Amino acid sequence: MQAPTDRPAVAITCGEPAGIGPEIAIRAAWRLRAEASCILIGDAAFLAQTAAAIDPAIRLSALSLQAVRNNGLPRFDDARLTVIDSPLAAVVTPGVLDPRNGRAVLQTLDIAIEGATEKWLDAIVTAPLQKSTINDAGIAFTGHTEYLADKTGTPQVVMLLAAAGDNDDNDPHPLRVALATTHLPLKDVPAALNTAGLLRTIEIIHADLQAKFGIVKPRILVTGLNPHAGEGGYLGREEIDIIAPAIRAAQANGIDARGPYPADTLFQPKYLHDADCVLAMYHDQGLPVLKHASFGRGVNITLGLPIIRTSVDHGTALDLAAQGIGHADDGSMIEAIKMAVRMVRAVQASRKAST
User: How far apart are CA 33 and CA 163, in angstroms?
Assistant: First the structure.
C-alpha cells in the first residue's frame, strides 16, 4: 500500500515531546516537503501548537492510525504536512520530563515500524527521545536501535554514522563510521568481540552499502582494538586472534575488507579517499572523529534492518527546549531525512535493475 506519490513516504517520529524533537521534525519536514512526503507521528494537537509557534504558514493535516490502516495515506501535496495522531497522556512543559508520556513516545515508534513493515511507509526518521522517561514509565528500554531490532525480529544490527557529505553527489567517499560494539563500558569491549560476530558485522555493512547506498563494490577499512593495532601482539592479541581472522573470512566471501589498521592514523585523507566505511571496534574510537568533522549535520543509520531507519546525531537538548522555540538547530534532522530519501531511491533502483 504505497503512498500515491513519486516522493518517498518518510515517517518522522517526533521523539521526546519536552525536547527539541518536535520543533526540528516540523522545521525539517516543512523545508523538505517538496523532496519527501513527510508524515509526522506524534500528538496532533501539540504538534499543531508547536508548528504555529514556529511559523503560522505551516499547515498540518491530522489522521488517526485507524484511518490510515483503513484507507491508506492521502495524496500528498506541498501545502501541508500529514500527522498520524499519537496522543500524549500529559500536557508538555518544554524542558521538563514527564514519565506519564513515556508510553506515548514509544507508541510513535510502534506506528512507524508498522507502517514501514506493512509498506505504506518507505522509511523511518527518528527524532531523539529520552530513555529515562520510558524506563520511568515502567517499560524496559535501552534505545531506538535495540527496540527496532527486537520489533523487526532482526538478530544483529549495526550502528553507522555518516557525515553530511553523504548527501552530496560530488563526494564519492564521504566519511562513514560503523561500530562493532556500541554502548558498553570500555572494560567490557574486549570480551564482546569475537570472530563470528565481527564477520557478521562486516557482512551486514557490505550488504547494506550495496542495497541501501547503491555502492557496487564497497571497501571497508577495519580498525584494531589496541594502540598501534596491537603492535604485533605486544600490546594485545585481539587483532591477531579475533579481528584479522574475521577480515580474512570476509575476504574469502568476496568482501573488500582490509585491516586491522591503527585507529590513531587511519582517519587521514590518504587512507579514506577511496574507503566507503570504517569499522571501529568501540563507540569512542570512531565517533569522535566523525562528530568533529560533522557534528550537527551527521546522520545515525541502523544497518541490518529489513526497513530503512535514520536519525539525528544528537540528543533531546532539554536545555534548549526550555528556552522556547527558535533555539534548536534542525541541520541533522534535515540530513537524516535527505539520507532516508537517498536510501529509498537506492533500494528502488536496485529492485528495478534486478527485474
Answer: 22
